[in-house]
Amino acid sequence: MSILEGCRGPHKTPIPEERRCPACGEEVEVFTVRGRIVAESVCECGYVFNEKEPYVSPGLQKIFDEAKKRAEEDG
Ligand SMILES: [Zn+2]
Fold first, then answer.
1. What pLDDT does 1 receive?
2. Rounded CA gap, 73 and 33, in Å?
3. What is the whole-number distance in angstroms between the Cα of residue 27 and the centre of ligand 1?
4. CA distance 44 to 29
5. Where are the domains of the chain?
6. For residue range 43-61, what is the model confidence (pLDDT) as tens digits?
């Protein structure tokens, strides 16, 4: 069962959702926005649910990437 959004529900708020692990079949709590996983979750068996969509906007992601790159260069 999925969690129904309220009619005024914000679309960018991550909600906890149970996903079945494809490796072991256990239910794992992951954070999703509109059904897409937005944060990495690790199952007890070690299977990793990778995020499907960056939580930040592409513009912000670019800024983060550049900041990260600069930090790495500074070493
Ligand atoms: Zn598992």
1. 53
2. 33
3. 8
4. 11
5. 15-74
6. 999 999 988 755 556 676 7
Q: Write down the pTM of the prediction.
A: 0.52
What's the pLDDT at 51? 83
Q: How far is the CA of 20 from the centre of ligand 1 (A)?
A: 8
Rounded distance from Cα 64 to ligand 1 centre (Å): 31
Alpha helices in the chain (DSSP H): 58-74
How many angstroms separate the alpha carbon of residue 49 from the centre of ligand 1? 10
Tell how far the Cα of 50 is from the centroid of ligand 1, in angstroms: 13
29 CA from centroid of ligand 1 (Å): 11
Residues of the chain with pLDDT under 50: none
DSSP letter, residue 11: T
d(CA 24, CA 15): 23
